[in-house]
Design goal:
about 110 residues; alpha+beta; 9 strands; about 15% helix; globular
Length: about 110
Amino acid sequence: MAEKNIENKEVHSTVNGDFLIYRDRPLVREENVICYGCMEDPYMLQLIIMSTKEYRGQTVPDKVVVQLLKTDTSVPSHQRIVKQSIQEGLSGAMDLGIVWLERALAS
């Protein structure tokens, strides 16, 4: 089996202080809600785990709501949602959300 070489710059997850840093942004989880991004930026992601399933003896997220949110707290919470989708699995939800977040921050 061939082993894949990974350069240090390709590994984006590290523990830094109280937060897990993923792709240079904080990733925080409290129960079934995951927040990704900085409150200083105009947008961030919120992922809400709606259901879980068993996979190889572990409980893993199944249905995940992905929301791109404005970080402006002066806006009412229901108006802060820019985009929203329901995805299967945490990996797909993170992939979609990161694309949304990067595009929103670039514009």
